[in-house]
Specification:
The complex is a heterodimer of chains A (about 425) and B (about 250). By secondary structure, chain A is α+β, with helices and mostly antiparallel strands. Chain A has one domain: Cytochrome-c3 Hydrogenase, chain B (Orthogonal Bundle), CATH 1.10.645. Chain A is about 45% helix and about 15% strand. In chain A, strand 4 and strand 5 form a beta hairpin. The radius of gyration of chain A is 21 Å and the shape is globular. Chain A starts with 5 loop residues before the first strand and ends with a helix. Chain B has about 250 residues and is of the alpha/beta class. The chains are: A alpha+beta (about 425), B alpha/beta (about 250). At the A-B interface, helix 1, helix 4 and helix 6 of A face helix 1, helix 2, helix 5 and helix 8 of B. The complex binds iron/sulfur cluster (3 copies). One iron/sulfur cluster binds next to helix 7 of chain B.
């Protein structure tokens, strides 16, 4: 076969969540087709929740995604609270933020340690690291385990949290548990340091590929945004409130994907750790800023592979912020709040930054508090288009490396986005 | 080549939260990895194998193309285990079947594009509606300790027996305040234990994510319904969340 004719077909990329395919066709050195396809079976959550009581919405939509079930729960609760006009206490807010940082840490470390490092070392799975990189693996499992335990202690379960309810938490952690959690969080900072150093030593294996795009995330005054804030991109001068999210996401259906695509000011946008970092890096805490510098991330980056690095940075941030929230909670009188909700007709939007980017839930309720309409916009949806356009730039640039290397780097690019495909095709 | 049992993990339509519970076993999964040969697990490794001693299936079936993939896996597996409620009963995914029809469902989500062929879907099916299942691990998500225990039992050639008593038993042992006394419908009296009654222990009603016990005590449930003034419909609607059929026969407001 002539070297300039290439046919690549990856039927279900491995080491990503959900099902995605890569197709490349080239003839005489010319790329004829390059495509990121999403054949995942949709589950139709927006239809499932119609007819259900407001109190069940988060229970159901949490099941959109196992890895970011906390993010879905929180976006769902915020949307319901916005629709029903319910406020939350300082305690509830702090517990929610703590829970969200726990999930970010859990998800990022799983992605970096189990899914990305094998690429950097060119091995097929994390299992082979048990022999070659035992220390690294132990550090990763230690951080991952603690992140899960945080979610357990605050949410009542590691996946699909139980205690986070509309307007309140149904059970509160003991102060003793919080104190112990804090000291263990402090304890894993050296482990994170070790992980960051290992990644740094391997970071040259990330290709020097760049494509500037629109970066979309939440932003707020005073703090690197995860739980609250308005929408921002590098292409707009003023923030847009989350309840106008439809103006931004502009979802549409394409034949190559069961997940919807989206775009705003350019042909595509990117969401996730790198988008958050690019928009808000000045608000990082001291240790996370140091981590970023150590890892060579200094200000805005147009290299999508740096999303992996931004995730490492956010792990450090999540640990620091979690300790801050624990301090705040320890200073509070922790008292269980009563479940007193008055239902009324209304609609509302909730948004949070989940590990893979900005997430929106929108619900409409009738006067009995029964859901009559729902819409969920998942971060991976918002990235699909950007992956496609990265492919289109990358394929010709990397073609001379030969089909095997091209295939390897395209897969590696997909993994850099940490896509949650079953979630995007919810 | 190793003579260890060849184990593979597959997922269909679901949130993949159950395989995450496997990953959450952390070091224990490495212990497990020494007892078996994990030959296929797309989420965590690159690789494939022609046949399996045990295939673990997560998720439900929602379109014809996936039926063939599932049948093919069945043909190449000695033992097939459905793990997680999506696989066991169809789980949360069957809420879709409660809607008027698939056309409405598709319209609700994809609007004017609903007719595109790649968006085709049919009413959600559990794994055993397509192929024979040798063993079930219920829950949404599965309890990871229970998962590990089941795997060990299967590896020893035993038939693991799931707890066959209601969540209430577990809940009462923990001396939790009963949620019915706070006007909250709880499915604990019929639901299958094995989760440590984790929901009521955290102040939230059980919605039977692990299905019911083998012979649910309908009379007991009936008495509770009468005592607290709930209808069968209200209870059944709760059971719908995880696609459980409780067969509560009577009771009224
Ligand atoms: S049973 Fe629940 S946790 Fe498991 S895959 Fe299905 S929705 Fe996710
Ligand atoms: S709270 Fe639920 S599980 Fe607990 S005793 Fe009452 S009915 Fe049973
Ligand atoms: S208490 Fe009920 S809903 Fe909760 S995990 Fe147990 S069986 Fe599932």
């Amino acid at each position: 076969m002539a070297k300039n004719n290439i046919h690549i077909e990856v039927n279900h990329v491995t080491r990503v969540e959900g099902h995605g395919n890569i197709v490349v066709d080239a003839k005489d050195g010319q790329i004829e087709k390059v495509q990121w396809q999403v054949p995942e079976a949709p589950r139709f959550f927006e239809a499932m929740v119609v007819g259900r009581d407001y109190s069940e919405l988060a229970v159901i939509t949490s099941r959109i995604c196992g890895i970011c079930s906390i993010g879905h729960t929180l976006a769902s609760l915020k949307a319901t609270e916005a629709a029903l006009g319910i406020g939350i206490s300082e305690t509830t807010r702090s517990l929610r933020e703590l829970l969200l940082h726990g999930e970010t840490l859990q998800s990022h470390i799983l992605h970096i340690g189990y899914l990305v490092v094998p690429d950097l070392l060119r091995v097929n799975s994390v299992f082979s690291l048990a022999e070659t990189h035992k220390d690294l693996l132990l550090a990763v499992t230690k951080v991952h385990r603690l992140a899960n335990e945080l979610c357990d202690i605050i949410g009542g379960r590691t996946t699909h949290p139980i205690r986070a309810r509309v307007g309140r938490f149904s059970k509160l952690p003991e102060k003793k548990e919080l104190e112990e959690l804090k000291s263990r969080l402090k304890d894993i900072l050296p482990d994170l340091q070790k992980i960051a150093e290992t990644i740094k030593a391997l970071a040259d294996n990330f290709p020097a590929f760049e494509r500037e795009t629109e970066y979309l995330s939440l932003t707020q005054a005073g703090e690197y945004a995860f739980y609250g804030g308005d929408c921002i991109t590098n292409d707009i001068a003023e923030t847009i409130p989350v309840n106008r999210y439809r103006e931004i996401v502009n979802e549409y259906v394409v034949p190559q994907s069961t997940a919807k695509f989206g775009k705003f000011n350019r042909d595509s946008f990117m969401v996730g750790a790198l988008a958050r970092y690019n928009n808000n890096f000045r608000q990082l805490t001291s240790l996370s800023t140091q981590a970023a510098e150590m890892l060579g991330l200094k200000g805005i980056s147009y290299n999508p592979f740096m999303n992996n690095i931004a995730q490492v940075v956010e792990c450090v941030f999540a640990v620091e912020k979690s300790m801050e929230h624990i301090d705040r909670l320890l200073d509070m009188e922790l008292a269980l709040e009563a479940d007193k909700i008055e239902v009324k007709a209304g609609s509302g939007v909730g948004a949070v930054e989940v590990p893979r980017g900005i997430l929106f839930h929108e619900y409409e309720y009738d006067d009995r508090g029964v859901c009559i309409k729902a819409n969920c916009v998942i971060p991976t949806n918002l990235n699909h288009n950007n992956i496609q356009l990265d492919f289109e730039k990358m394929a010709p640039e990397f073609m001379e490396l030969g089909p095997d290397e091209l295939r390897f780097y395209l897969e590696m690019l997909v993994r850099a986005y940490d896509p949650c495909i079953s979630c995007s095709t919810h | 080549m190793s003579s260890k049992p060849k184990v593979a993990f597959f997922d269909f339509a679901c949130c993949e939260g159950c395989q995450l519970q496997v990953a959450n076993l952390e070091e224990e999964i490495l212990v497990l990895a020494q007892m078996v040969d994990v030959v296929e697990f797309r989420e965590v490794m690159t690789g494939a194998a022609p046949a399996y001693d045990i295939a673990f299936i997560e998720g439900s079936i929602t379109r014809r193309a996936d039926e063939n993939r599932l049948k093919d896996i069945r043909n190449r597996s000695k033992l097939l285990v459905a793990y997680g409620q999506c696989a066991v009963s169809g789980g949360i995914n069957k809420l879709k079947n409660r809607r008027p029809g698939m056309d409405e469902v598709k319209k609700e989500v994809y609007g004017d594009s609903a007719g595109m062929p790649h968006l085709d879907t049919y009413p959600t099916k559990a794994i055993d509606e397509i192929v024979a299942v040798d063993f079930y691990i219920p829950g949404c998500p599965v309890n990871r300790e229970e998962f590990l225990w089941v795997v060990k039992e299967l590896l020893l050639g035993k038939t693991p027996r799931l707890p066959n008593y209601p969540v209430c038993v577990n809940c009462k042992l923990q001396e939790n305040a009963c949620l019915f006394d706070f006007s909250i419908i709880c499915l604990g009296p019929l639901a299958r234990a094995g989760c440590g009654a984790v929901c009521p222990a955290n102040g939230v009603a059980c919605c039977a994510c692990r299905g019911t016990v083998d012979n649910p005590n309908k009379n007991a449930m009936h008495e509770i319904l009468l005592k607290y003034n709930y209808t069968v419909e209200e209870i059944k609607k709760k059971f719908d969340i995880f696609a459980v059929d409780p067969e509560v026969q009577s009771g009224k407001k």
